[in-house]
Amino acid sequence: xxxxxxxxxxxxxxxxxxxxxxxxxxxxxxxxxxxxxxxxxxxxxxxxxxxxxxxxxxxxxxxxxxxxxxxxxxxxxxxxxxxxxxxxxxxxxxxxxxxxxxxxxxxxx
Amino acid sequence: xxxxxxxxxxxxxxxxxxxxxxxxxxxxxxxxxxxxxxxxxxxxxxxxxxxxxxxxxxxxxxxxxxxxxxxxxxxxxxxxxxxxxxxxxxxxxxxxxxxxxxxxxxxxxxxxxxxxxxx
Lengths: 109, 119
Description:
The complex is a heterodimer.
Chain A: E1 4-7, E2 10-14, E3 19-25, E4 31-37, E5 43-48, E6 52-56, E7 59-64, E8 69-74, E9 83-90, E10 98-99, E11 103-108
Parallel strand pairs in A: 2-11
Antiparallel strand pairs in A: 1-3, 3-8, 4-5, 4-9, 6-7, 7-8, 9-10, 9-11
Chain B: E1 4-7, E2 10-13, E3 19-25, E4 32-38, E5 44-51, E6 57-58, E7 67-73, E8 76-81, E9 90-97, E10 108-110, E11 114-118
Parallel strand pairs in B: 2-11
Antiparallel strand pairs in B: 1-3, 3-8, 4-5, 4-9, 5-6, 7-8, 9-10, 9-11
């Protein structure tokens, strides 16, 4: 099956700092999503981005499908950004997504 | 937007009992739903694909007799953990593609998950 690698595994930032999270995948995909899992376990859909670039407020994401990676940018980080960020990809044409191991982000005040 | 509702959010049960978890698509129809399991500090692992009107498809290593899945309508899938044991304690979360006809190129929408504790 497809392999999904996220880096870094852990990231600690001071409030206000910027960060880049990376997701590499081993095969071409038809779906790619970025999620934020909050401390209560809820998965918040950040971006649906199989290719191209999208922005939503302080967050933006870029997927370069031909090179099999995606980046999530967080600018001016806030303590509420803390949590685990997952990249999930689908190459099955059946809607099944494979998750990376996540990046645990801690933003300190 | 597409909303997936999952119930209950938390359940504590005794070893040997069965627990049913419901997953509903509230404002769209889903012929396919997916069930994931997440152990503490780990990623989400796909357990099975729930198919409306037909049998579920289980991932390798997932016991179909242990985790019974029923997709009785276009808006409801249920996961029943039978004869639960402490090692089944986990976070279970369902998802559904946002569009009915083209599940392979639609974003997934997730329920809020069910935290199961078996004592």
